[in-house]
Amino acid sequence: MQTSTIQIENVHRRFPDGTVALEGVNLSVQPGEFVSLVGPSGCGKSTLLRILAGLDTATSGVARLNGRSPSDPQARQEMAFVFQEPTLMPWKSVLNNVALPLELRGVGVRERQDRARQSLELVGLSGREGAYPRELSGGMKMRVSIARALVTKPQVMLMDEPFGALDEMTRQRLNDELLGIQQQTGATVVFVTHNMFEAVYLSRRIVVMTPHPGRVAAVLEVPEAYPRDGSFRASELYGRLVYQVLQILEGRPALPAERLPAYSPVASVPA
Ligand SMILES: Nc1ncnc2c1ncn2[C@@H]1O[C@H](COP(=O)(O)OP(=O)(O)OP(=O)(O)O)[C@@H](O)[C@H]1O
Question: How far is the CA of 43 from the centre of ligand 1 (A)?
Fold first, then answer.
């Protein structure tokens, strides 16, 4: 039986000031799956991602990555985190920024630079190895940040609003590149975004969260095969799914059955 890469069972996170960031969250993510967490500010998306990354701990409940606690050193080796800010070292070249996680793991200079070059090729930045972060556009910096995450060949990529600061055209281009990389590497991706268009375009499943307390309101399936391209954005399915996410976020009833396509997009609504 194939086990889930990520297992979250009845996770609660209450901060010392009494804020309940997460209440009773359940989610399992299969190997190679692309799952987005969508919802308004404060619904607990980042908190959930941080718990998965071992950067925060649940007050109660269980989070597992390949059956291990996210703080387990082996689990940490198997994942990479991409933040909204590219957080590059300004004094290091693009190549050395990308090689940094390998340097921290004690990999020799020749091997880490070779692997950093391969990673830069994946994000379309071959030829820019010698550049410094100040010479790059916002989109290029984010590509470097993704290349740095890929350099350790992680099974799981945890991405927190990575394209939130980019213009719409750059965001769409990077969405396509990310999907290409994900198909090529087979990585499992958990992707946080405020943007429901992006979530529908990228995901196999969308976890819609609502705040106060942070809960999973619904999980939508996106029944569109990969690889996807821009024509998906012009489809009826895409428009209806975006609308469905909005309805759930606004606390309105889901679309009536006669206004939905033949499939049933609400895969599950937790009790
Ligand atoms: N260290 C903390 N102490 C107290 N409250 C916190 C802490 N971190 C987060 N919170 C609160 O927990 C709730 C969830 O925060 P979180 O950052 O996970 O939400 P989010 O959905 O990622 O929001 P955004 O989209 O704005 O990043 C919010 O009410 C936030 O203010």
Answer: 7
CA dihedral 210, 198, 49, 158 (to 10 degrees): 170
Ligand 1 pocket: which of 19, 59, 163 to mutate (most atoms <8 Å of CB)?
19
CA angle 50, 55, 60 (to 5 degrees): 75
Alpha carbon of 119 to ligand 1 centroid (Å): 32
Q: Counting beta carbons within 10 angstroms of the beta carbon of residue 137, is it exposed (0 to 12), middle (13 to 18) or buried (19 or more)?
A: exposed
Long-range Cβ pairs for the range 16-20 (8 Å, 24+)? 20/212, 20/213, 20/214
Alpha-carbon distance of 217 to 200, in angstroms, equals 16
Q: With beta carbons less than 8 A apart as the criterion, state whether 23 and 37 touch.
A: no
pLDDT at 83: 87
CA of 75 to the centre of ligand 1 (A): 24
Domains of the chain, earliest start first:
1-78+187-271 (3.40.50.300)
Tell me the per-residue pLDDT of 88-111, one tens digit each, with 9 for 90 and over: 999 999 999 999 999 999 999 999
Is the C-beta atom of 86 inside 6 A of ligand 1? no
Does the interface predicted TM-score (ipTM) exceed 0.90?
Answer: yes
State the distance between the two ends of the chain, measured CA to CA, in whole angstroms.
27
Indicate if ligand 1 lies below 6 Å from the C-beta of 42. yes
Q: What is the pLDDT of residue 165?
A: 82
